[in-house]
Amino acid sequence: MQPETKICQNCKNEFEIISEDFILYEKIGLQAPKVCFECRSKNYFAFWPFGKFRKSKSDLSGDGLITVLPNNPRYPIYKSEEWWSDKWDPIDSGQEYDPSRSFFEQLKELQEKIPRPHQTGESSINCDWCDDIWDSKNCYLSRSLSRCENTNYSYRVLNTKDSFDIVLSFNLQNSYDCLSCHNSYNLNFSESSRDCVDSYFLFDCRNCQNCFMCFNLRNKSYCILNKQYSKEEYFSELKKIKFDSYGYLLSLKEKFVEILKSNAIHKENHNINVLNSKGNYLKDCENCVNVFSWENSQNCRNSLRGLLSKDCIDQLGTWHTEVSGDNSCVTGGYDIKHSSWSDARYSEYLDLCYEVEYCFGCIGLRNKKHCILNKQYTKEEYENLKSKIIENMKSKGEYGDFLPYFMGLCPYNFSTAIIYFPELQKSEIDRLNGYWSSEDLSSSEGDNSMGLPDSIFETNISISDKALICPESHYRFNISKAEYDFHKRKGFALPRLHFDLRVIKKARKASVIKSFLYKCFFCKKDIMAYYPYEWGYKNIACEECYKININ
Ligand SMILES: [Zn+2]
Ligand SMILES: [Zn+2]
């Protein structure tokens, strides 16, 4: 099929659909999109709450719960265990299809009758103040964790223990303030480093021990600013570093930023073990193009954050999918389209459906077949009504579009889009019939955190009883007892920003989906790299040169 240039119906920019996209659209049975990749992704994010943790009550039992779902939601909220029980039946809310009305309007009415579980995830212990949490224990104020223990204020973390303020990292222990770091112990204030121990402010280091403020190092110990010291010298130098002082720590962070700009070599992307693929933060992928933060997949295109998928296109936050597309937060499926939060086969326009097949326009179903708008049909009735609805939707120009913004799950400014598209404005979301919260969540009942004593050693545990106000978000927060103990033990200054803001700022660094033209620092050839110019990175290397010079 010939590539086609189109005008995005939303942002009015030109976008290209290339032959390989068309092949997948045809294989999956999707129409060519009317809006560009960025606008499609923005639409998917309306279905992925990031939220703000809050206390509420189950609309079924009245039991207390903690959730990231919004205040005054359009739908009931049940405790997860109630949601998964047989105390309610989504079939009771089944609706007759009305051909005179928009299908999406009818689907929205159904959606508003169906409860949603207060928390995503399963098999965790003492992780009430978490969301998207799996097989974890004693974690706090964190999202998207799996197999973690005592991990607090963190996001997108696997297999991590006794760590705070960790983003997009695997297999860390006793670590603090790390982004994209793996297999390390007592690693702190670091980025993109692996197999490191007892170190601080490392960037792109591998197998290093007792290093401070280093970059692009391999297999080293006792280095400071990439300079070799003896063990004794190293420790006597390290003693002079006042990690306990907030002001001093800020100056170290500024120094680190300066090193990233002027000294460190940055590989053009963060991909590991990829073949024939284009994107960023890819691992073990083959033929994946325009895909970001994706793992163990083949032949996927135009997608953000997922894994274990094959022959899929236009997806956000999905895993275990095959021959599927135009989905947001789908947890599994084959031939599933235009859906969110579902695990299904041969189905379209689902939200919150699990283990269903041959369903169309359903919400909250489990183990069903041949349902439309949560009504049960025979196979023949289902096929007939489905064709009728699709014809009708086509005549209204609805068929093939993703679930509309007005079915979104939270105010857009509390969706995960705030990490990827921080510049999005209320006016744009209003125009798309989405939701925006203008509720003022700032607080003045507390002490400005910038007024805390400079050194943690000038404080004591009673500080955890204090209500603090974040100077940037103006949200109220406090230093938890566990957090205080952790910082005291490490001798690190206490944080001043609200925990969500700390996470969001770090996550944004790993969420760039646009590439920029650079010249390779070594061979001078043109390369496209995922570092916005305003970051000021001077030394970007193509993959080949990085391999030769750094690896
Ligand atoms: Zn667009
Ligand atoms: Zn090069």
What topology emerges from the helices and strands here?
Layout: E1 4-7, E2 14-17, H1 19-28, H2 37-45, E3 54-57, E4 64-67, E5 77-78, H3 80-83, H4 103-113, E6 116-117, E7 121-122, E8 130-134, E9 142-146, E10 149-152, E11 155-158, E12 161-173, E13 176-179, E14 182-191, E15 197-203, E16 209-215, E17 221-224, E18 227-228, H5 231-239, H6 246-262, E19 266-267, E20 272-275, E21 278-286, E22 289-307, E23 310-319, E24 321-328, E25 332-340, E26 343-351, E27 354-363, E28 369-372, E29 375-376, H7 379-395, H8 417-420, H9 426-431, E30 447-448, E31 468-469, E32 476-477, H10 481-490, H11 499-509, E33 516-519, E34 526-529, E35 540-541, H12 543-549
Parallel strand pairs: 5-6, 7-8, 8-9, 9-11, 10-12, 11-12, 12-13, 12-14, 13-14, 14-15, 15-16, 16-17, 19-35, 20-21, 21-22, 22-23, 23-24, 24-25, 25-26, 26-27, 27-28, 30-31
Antiparallel strand pairs: 1-2, 3-4, 17-18, 28-29, 31-32, 33-34
This protein binds zinc ion (2 copies).
